[in-house]
Amino acid sequence: MVLFNLLVIVLIFAFLFYLERKGVSFGKRILFALAIGIIIGAVYQGSYGIDSPVVKGTLSWLNIVGTGYIRMLMLIVIPLVLVSITSSILQIKDMKTFRTTGILIIGILLFTTVIAASVGAASALGYHLSAVGMPAGDSEIIAGQNIETKLDTFQKKSVQEQLIEIIPTNVFYAFTGQHSADTLSVVFIAILIGISILKIRQYKPETAEFLEKIILASQDIIMEIVDLILRITPYGILSLIVKFIATSDISSILKLVSFVAASYTAIIVMFVIHLLLLALVRYNPLHYINEAFPVLSFAFMSRTSAGTLPLTVSALESKMGVSKGIANLAASFGISIGQNGCAGVYPAMLAVMIAPTVGIDPFTLPFLLKLVFVTALGSLGIAGVGGGATFAALVVLSTMGLPVGLVGLLIAVEPLIDMGRTALNVSDAMVTAVITEKLTTKV
Known about the structure:
The chain is mostly helical.
């Protein structure tokens, strides 16, 4: 049966390739891959069961495409961030413009995170979520213990030490992406390189021109690699959705259906707010939905904001009319700062849910105001890879004086919720780029 399943997958891959050769749009191919992947995954679970050797055998081969695609995207993230931000700075005529643009982008990211935290808290209150009396199995207890261990490690470092870690002592180690602060470290390095070349322009224009050519040539190479990787996006999404549907424990998810519903209510509300913000700067929300759909679909399935970066930049530049400089800055900052889903909605919901377990009334205004403030500050520097939401939760819950081990109760629905959170994170970065483009253009 494994061979039969793989044969069917290969035939579907061949059909996707046929659609591409026929000129079918990228968005339609993504939609087809999602739909057929859901059907196949449901058939696998219904026919064989989650723990079936047939499903495991099929997915082990399918993982080569799905996981391989994620790894290829992660491979290109660090060099893409480096050359994108550096080239973005080089396209800015003066430092004043760079400072204005950068501060505006960060300001919008934090502003939307404040809104996201408020929406998350309101959704949790509206659904009357509470961790009091929630049952915990072995996996939940182990997850809670692991989270408490992470908190112990986190609390050993002061805020000052965590900020200092953004400045790398070894540039090559920062490029490996092994440390949680490496993305911000690469951003820091890129800004240093860009500013230095801008300074060299003033007294050695020939040297600056030579360095700019190297940066731009490197960007051309990296973007060509990105284009090659993006061509296999439909195949990657198909593989990822089949795995998710075929291996999801529906019974465990149903036990926490209220939290899932509250989470997606908050996420949908934030998406609507994103569209309203776009409308305020006179950008057509329907156009945004149409052009952002393929990017958000991949973010949803891959659960990585950083891995989605190449698609984000490409869509902003080629589909939404955002200048290269702003597109790269907003997209790069967006995977480390703000993050409406992982660093806004999620920690706020957890805080409201866990507060009653220690006798705190989450309906009080002082608690909610402190929660929104702490969540916004805690959103700075959240990594755009798996685990970013957990890190954000550690920051918020520990600062609010709430127990972090109870987060383990949500382990069963974590992947399902993380899909929506990641898509919201990416949408935040894209909306920030569009708004920044509109505001700076008017100026």
